[in-house]
Write a structure and sequence with these properties.
- By secondary structure, the protein is of the alpha+beta class.
- Among the domains are: about 80-215, 2-Layer Sandwich (Beta-Lactamase); about 410-545, 2-Layer Sandwich (Alpha-Beta Plaits), CATH 3.30.70; about 555-645; about 675-769, Orthogonal Bundle (Arc Repressor Mutant, subunit A), CATH 1.10.10.
- About 60% of the residues lie in helices and about 15% in strands.
- It is built from 28 helices and 17 strands.
- It has a seven-stranded antiparallel sheet with strand order 3-2-1-7-6-5-4. Strands 9-8-12-11-10 form a five-stranded antiparallel sheet, with helices on both faces. Strands 14-15-13-16-17 form a five-stranded mixed sheet, sandwiched between helices.
- Strand 14 (about 455) and strand 15 (about 460-465) form a beta hairpin.
- The N and C termini lie far apart (about 145 Å).
- This is AraC family transcriptional regulator.
- Keywords: DNA-binding, Membrane, Transcription, Transcription regulation, Transmembrane, Transmembrane helix.
- It comes from Paenibacillus odorifer.
């Protein structure tokens, strides 16, 4: 009875402590939370109002600028000089009319930064007029182009197509090597063009950065994003975000496109739509910016609430201390009664049973984990043993006993069994199949009753350790026994699982510390078996007996021939040095093998000299005789030196032939330039097409051989012809400029004065005087 009263008493005390602590903490928390909600509501309404106003102002400015762009094209439509050029059908180019149009018409856009980059395409002239110059379409495209349109697509979709106030959405654009993003406004001229093609097209290129500057108030002030799209959903401007995020937001069913403002993810999204062109304007304000003012109130709330919580915490600690005394007493009783049959209070029993169950569970988990890790520990021991990481015999025995391996004998053999048919394959399916094959191979050895230690080596190999059963076992008998075991294993896994194997074994190790040496010998034996495609088992002694052949593979011979044919002397010498080093340092060649190696290399050079690149050489027979006369009995270093001398002569011959070819190409370029200097379209690209060589190669070659750039050479040829024509009074300076390949007489006069030193008129006057 007394115990029940005490428990109830302590329960009432704990209940009072809990209620008083909760009351102290809940009252200030509710006040702070209400203040925080109020700040959010007020800030949200103000931010939405400001965002809508800012977005509407940006929309108004942008639409006014686009209206100016449209007005600009209407001014072009009524311009008389441009209309004259559009309607001309004369075969000759009206140079003066084009120049006058460029001066008068193409200066309209100086007051609007949206009109900084535009051009007019004249279909009858196939000519593009810009504020600074005129271009052929292909020349303009080489400097200014859309990354998503080829030259033909650009001509077809922009220049030759009829446009009626058409806007090409945001596209990647290259302007003189600089990458940017632009939208394009296109209007065919005259305005009533309804056919598939029109006489002219006015195209305005508007950089995204210019449009983005109008929206900087939204992005810089709020740190958010702005997205403008046309009526079809194509992006016009995107700043502060990416296309993927916008597409995801538009496709999300939780996002309402018709709402002016709404929260989406962490942004307040404001949306307006233009009544004039159907464009959709959207801006996103990050929630943390939106809550900036609310955070100030939140900080104040935290300070007030924090002070209140601190006071409540002190009071709670006092109450906790007072209430913890009976609880501690109860715990001490539980410890005293631990293990007795008499049950204690319910809480004590729960605490005791819970801790015991937890200890049992952890003990079982530990035991399970140790059993699971044992194979991994054994595998790690075997890999360390094979790698020779143990220093002493006792250290090996101690580590073996730790992992449960009983090393009774110190002698045995190390072998490597390789699963065939998977060389060079590393897909997931192949690796899974190899894992299964290795398991089957190990299981098959166990099924055959063989006592052997095994570990994996790579994905397709299993290392085996066969220990001798007795100290005085005959070596030959033991090797024969292992051979029989491996043959039976190979036959068994092939019959059961269609697995084929190869094996390499090292020599007998007489001490456990020599296992790593036998392992290295097994690797060499296996490599030899794979190289020689030998089936079954190859012992280390067999591989060493056979390693007397010379090293000179076919791919090395082909690489040597190709290198000499290319005139690369140093690379050819490096290949020969590698062949000599491989055969001198890593192989003990007999005299017969050495003579065969030298004969093979001589045969390589004779095959090389029979190729067309050298048959025209007048002294080719003497070179062949020198190759044949190289003595096979000399030291390889002396033979290498003789081959080097021959290679130097052959590479020098290749270099001279290249020089002759270069001189012939330069002669061809100069002749083509003299024949076509009057062509205004003559360029290095045209010359490269003529001589069928890359443009960059021609540029470098011409500079190396002549000492001047091709452009300077072309100017000199044209000026030389201009000097001849200036002596004839029948031609004016403008006519001479056209005859020597200049579209502009001003450019001709400037080039003439820079090269000759005086103007064309002054030069003609000096001739007359």
């Amino acid at each position: 009875m007394r115990g029940g009263v005490t428990t109830l008493k302590y329960s009432n005390i704990f209940r009072k402590f809990l209620i008083s602590y909760v009351v102290i903490l809940v009252i200030p928390s509710i006040g702070g939370y209400m203040s925080y909600l109020t700040s959010i509501s007020v800030t949200e309404s103000i931010s939405i109002e400001n965002g809508v106003t800012q977005l509407q102002k940006s929309q108004e400015i942008l639409e006014r600028r686009m209206a100016e762009v449209e007005g600009f094209t209407r001014q072009l439509a009524v311009n008389q000089e441009l209309n004259v050029l559009m309607n001309e059908r004369d075969n000759e180019t009206n140079v003066y009319g084009i120049w006058r149009t460029m001066r008068n018409v193409l200066t309209f856009g100086q007051t609007n930064d949206f009109l900084q980059n535009y051009y007019i395409y004249l279909a009858n002239y196939n000519l593009i007029l810009t504020p600074g110059s005129s271009y052929r379409p292909e020349h303009y495209y080489s400097n200014f182009n859309y990354k998503d349109l080829s030259l033909q697509d650009w001509i077809k979709e922009v220049l030759e197509k009829t446009h009626r106030s058409e806007i090409k959405p945001l596209s990647d654009y290259v302007s003189r090597g600089m990458q940017t993003s632009v939208i394009t406004y296109m209007q065919s001229l005259p305005l009533d063009s309804f056919n598939d093609s029109s006489p002219a097209v006015a195209v305005v290129i508007i950089d995204e950065k210019i449009i983005s500057s109008l929206l900087s108030g939204l992005t810089e002030r709020y740190g958010g994003w702005v997205h403008i799209s046309d009526a079809e959903g194509n992006t016009i401007v995107l700043q502060g975000s990416d296309e993927q995020k916008m597409a995801h937001m538009t496709a999300d069913s939780d996002f309402d496109k018709n709402k002016v403002s709404q929260f989406y993810e962490d942004d307040l999204v404001i949306t307006t739509r233009s009544d004039s062109n159907g464009w959709v304007y959207q801006t996103g304000i990050p929630r943390h910016i939106l809550m900036e003012n609310a955070n100030k109130i939140k900080q104040m709330s935290i300070q007030i609430t924090g002070g209140t919580l601190l006071i409540g915490l002190i009071v709670g600690l006092i109450l906790a201390y007072r209430n913890s005394a009976p609880i501690n007493h109860m715990l001490s009783v539980m410890k005293e009664q631990f293990g007795k049959e008499e049950a204690s209070a319910k809480n004590e029993f729960d605490f005791l049973s819970g801790n015991i169950a937890n200890m049992i569970t952890k003990n079982k988990l530990l035991e399970t984990e140790l059993n699971r890790q044992l194979p991994l520990v054994r595998d790690a021991f075997l890999k360390r043993l094979l790698a020779g990481e143990f220093k002493t015999h006792d250290e090996i025995l101690t580590a073996a006993e730790q992992v449960g391996i009983n090393l009774k004998q110190n002698t045995g053999y190390v072998g490597i069994v390789q699963i065939n048919g998977y060389a060079g394959m590393d897909s997931v399916e192949i690796l899974n199949e190899l894992n299964a094959s290795r398991l089957l191979l190990k299981q098959s050895l166990s099924d055959l009753g063989v006592d052997v230690l095994m570990t994996d080596m790579g994905s397709d190999k299993v290392v085996t350790l066969f220990f001798s059963k007795e100290e005085e076992t005959d070596k030959a008998y033991e090797a024969e026994n292992i051979t029989n075991i491996l043959e039976n294993l190979a036959q068994y896994v092939f019959n059961e699982y269609r697995i084929t194997t190869q094996a390499g074994f090292g020599d007998l190790f007489t001490e456990i510390t020599e296992v790593s040496l036998s392992f290295d010998q097994a690797k060499q034996a296996l490599e030899y078996a794979v190289y020689m495609n030998k089936k079954g088992i190859v012992w280390s002694s067999e591989a060493q007996n056979e390693n007397t052949t010379y090293y000179y593979p076919l791919d090395t011979e082909q690489r040597l021939i190709s290198t000499i044919r290319a005139g690369e002397l140093e690379e050819a010498k490096r290949i020969v040095r590698a062949i000599v080093a491989q055969n001198m340092e890593q192989r003990e060649l007999s005299m017969e093998m050495k003579q065969q190696l030298v004969g093979e290399i001589k045969g390589t050079f004779l095959k090389l000299l029979d190729q067309k690149a050298f048959t025209e050489y007048p002294d080719i027979e003497s070179v062949k005789r020198r190759v044949i006369d190289i003595g096979s009995s000399e030291r390889l270093e002396m033979i290498q030196t003789e081959f080097f001398v021959i290679m130097e002569e052959l590479c020098g011959l290749i270099a001279n032939k290249k020089k002759d070819v270069h001189i012939q190409i330069i002669k061809q370029i100069k002749e083509y330039t003299v024949e076509n200097y009057s062509d205004t379209e003559l360029s290095l690209y045209r010359v490269a097409e003529q001589v069928e060589r890359p443009e960059k190669y021609i540029s470098q070659l011409f500079k190396e051989v002549t000492g001047v750039n091709f452009s300077d050479h072309l100017i000199k040829v044209r000026m030389d012809q201009a000097v001849i024509l200036l002596k004839d009074s029948r031609y004016t300076v403008d006519e001479i400029a056209m005859r020597v390949g200049y579209n502009s007489s001003h450019s001709f006069r400037r080039a003439f004065k820079r090269l000759i030193g005086v103007s064309p008129s002054a030069y003609r006057q000096s001739i007359d005087e």
